[in-house]
């Protein structure tokens, strides 16, 4: 995850209309969607690791990583896992979106960019986390960069893009790992992460448990935070009986808004007539990233790095709260 130097940079109002050219069942519970420009013009370029916001027919907005070759301008390819714990996003994509439909999307954004100074890139994907990782592998392969890809899944029939990867020019740099396979083919974290190397960068994406395990192991082995790059798809919303109320102050007007213990900052501000653009509402996408001018946030997001959280100069108001009685926000 790269430093968030441009606050609120993801709150772009630009949007595109695309048409679903193809919808394919790629693997168990995974559909791919081929999106092309509605008017036939080239789509905005994107870099490996980018995602788009997709405005769904049921009114929700969700982020999906682009997993086609970044050199392509005629389409965006996304893959969506139908999550049994869905809050409505993946279900809408699977059940409501069909070939020929028009969708409104954002221009591509990238909070998970490649570090081009890396001497070696270690790409680890778990399940649907292959989507941004695959795009990275395409880009690194074209650049003739040094990398390896490890792709983990519960079983072969749940592994999206298996055939595409096996046919790719980077297939020799790829290892597949299945939970239901024999022990010898399973991911060996000690061997991969045990000795951090200067110039080696680690990229990880997948289910939260998978990512937590990878990152915890890497940090325990002494990997510098600057060499760790990650992107969470979802987070567990943290609520506690110990949550208290606090105030937020808008720096531009001086208005003070009280945040009750059962409300988020975003909700409290909305009740006061102050709208902050949100998307995931789980602290993973960064859409609502807001600068903190005074006070100490209680970070509950999965978007900021530990160093960024420790700086306490920004927070995600969709999920994070306050340790101090007052937060002064750059709003």
From TrEMBL:
Cofactor(s) needed by this chain: FMN
Pfam families: DmmA-like_N, Fer2
Domain 2Fe-2S ferredoxin-type: 246-331
Gene3D superfamilies per UniProt: 3.10.20.30, Nucleotide-binding domain of ferredoxin-NADP reductase (FNR) module, Translation factors
Domain of life per record: Bacteria
Keywords carried by this UniProt record: 2Fe-2S, Flavoprotein, FMN, Iron, Iron-sulfur, Metal-binding, Oxidoreductase
Keyword Transport applies: no
Residue stretches making up the FAD-binding FR-type domain: 13-115
Record PROSITE patterns: 2FE2S_FER_1 (PS00197), 2FE2S_FER_2 (PS51085), FAD_FR (PS51384)
PANTHER family xrefs: CARNITINE MONOOXYGENASE REDUCTASE SUBUNIT, NADH OXIDOREDUCTASE HCR
Name of the molecule in the record: PDR/VanB family oxidoreductase
């Amino acid at each position: 995850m790269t430093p968030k130097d441009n606050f609120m940079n993801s709150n772009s109002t630009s949007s595109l209309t695309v048409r679903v050219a193809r919808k394919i069942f790629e693997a168990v519970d995974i559909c791919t969607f081929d999106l092309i420009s509605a008017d036939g013009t080239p789509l905005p370029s994107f870099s490996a690791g980018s995602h788009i916001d997709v405005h769904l027919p049921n009114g929700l907005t969700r982020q999906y990583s682009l997993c086609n070759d970044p050199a392509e301008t005629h389409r965006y390819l996304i893959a969506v896992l139908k999550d049994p714990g869905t809050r409505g996003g993946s279900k809408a994509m699977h059940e409501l979106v069909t070939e020929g439909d028009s969708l409104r999307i954002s221009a591509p954004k990238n909070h998970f960019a490649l570090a081009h100074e890396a001497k070696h890139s270690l790409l680890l994907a778990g399940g649907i986390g292959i989507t941004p990782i695959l795009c990275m592998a395409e880009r690194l392969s074209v650049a003739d960069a040094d990398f390896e890809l490890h792709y983990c899944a519960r079983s072969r029939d749940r592994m999206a893009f298996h055939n595409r990867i096996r046919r790719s020019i980077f297939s020799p740099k790829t290892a597949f790992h299945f939970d239901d396979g024999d022990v010898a083919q399973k991911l060996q974290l000690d061997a991969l992460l045990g000795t951090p190397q200067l110039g080696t960068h680690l990229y990880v994406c997948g289910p939260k448990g998978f990512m937590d395990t990878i990152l915890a192991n890497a940090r325990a082995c002494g990997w510098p935070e600057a060499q760790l790059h990650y992107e969470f798809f979802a987070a567990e919303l943290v609520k506690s009986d110990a949550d208290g109320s606090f105030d937020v102050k808008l720096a531009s007007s001086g208005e003070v808004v009280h945040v009750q213990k059962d409300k988020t900052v975003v909700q409290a501000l909305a009740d006061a007539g102050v709208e902050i653009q949100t998307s995931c509402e789980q602290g993973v996408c960064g859409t609502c990233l807001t600068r903190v001018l005074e006070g100490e946030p209680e970070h509950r997001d999965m978007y900021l790095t530990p160093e960024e959280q420790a700086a306490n100069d920004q927070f995600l108001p969709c999920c994070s709260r306050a340790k101090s009685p007052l937060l002064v926000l750059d709003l």
